[in-house]
Amino acid sequence: MMYQGPERRFTNRGQKPLPRVCRQIRAAADPPERVRPASAECMSPRFGHGLRVSELVALRWDQIDLEQGLLHVSRLKHGVPSTHPLRGPEIRALRRVRREYGISPYVFTTEQRGAMTDSSVRKIIARAGEEAQLGIPVHPHMLRHACGYKLANDGHDTRAIQHYLGHRNIQHTVRYTELASDRFIGFWRD
């Protein structure tokens, strides 16, 4: 996924829309990593909430309030914790995981009910990138960046994106807004 010049928004090189890439990631979780299929289906929080790999594999059920539709994000790397709303499809997928696989402390687990590792997530996403035929090597942090670029391209202010991604320093967030070519549209009216 790369930014392609001043006149284009952040894209995945025009190959496939990002939701399709997320579906490819879910489809890529098969027996070699012994990941439960329902856990693989829920990998979309990686994009939708801008989670780091380590935050994703450390995600516990006590951080999720399915009744209120909230995800309490504990950021690593000295990030700022935040609370994100969960959307309907996410809530339904998480309820299905909990119902079908019982209660485990971790949301994303292997068949042995242990927490997934950073390595298994990296393999799943790399394989999904190959299957999606994006033409570039895909790594998990790209989904975090995609979240930042999408929020910037949708017109959200930099401070809100900073808090959403858990950045302590706004310099880490500015990169997403610098590339949005249409950020000045509507500043002046003729």
Overview of the structural elements:
By secondary structure, this protein is mostly helical. The protein has a domain at 18-136: Intergrase catalytic core (hpI Integrase, Chain A, Orthogonal Bundle). Helices cover 43% and strands 5% of the residues. It has helices at 18-28, 37-41, 45-48, 53-57, 88-101, 118-131, 141-153, 158-165, 171-178; strands at 64-65, 70-73, 82-85. The protein has a three-stranded antiparallel β-sheet with strand order 1-2-3, with helices on one face. A hairpin with a 4-residue loop joins β1 and β2. The longest helix is centred in the middle third of the chain and has 14 residues, at 88-101. Mean pLDDT is 77; it is low at 1-16 and 29-33.
Any idea of the CATH topology of the domain at 18-136? hpI Integrase, Chain A
- SSE order in H/E notation? HHHHEEEHHHHH
Q: What's the CATH class of the domain at 18-136, please?
A: Mainly Alpha
Q: Could you name the CATH homologous superfamily of the domain at 18-136?
A: Intergrase catalytic core
What is the strand arrangement across the widest sheet? 1-2-3
Q: Can you summarize the main beta sheet?
A: 3 strands, antiparallel
Number of helices: 9
The helicity comes to 40-55%
CA gyration radius, whole angstroms: 17 Å
Q: What low-confidence regions span 5 or more consecutive residues with pLDDT below 50? A: 1-16, 29-33
Terminal CA distance reads 36 Å
Mean pLDDT: 77
Report the strand count. 3
Structural category = mainly alpha
Shape: globular
- Going by CATH, the architecture of the domain at 18-136 would be Orthogonal Bundle
Fraction of residues in β-strands: 5-15%
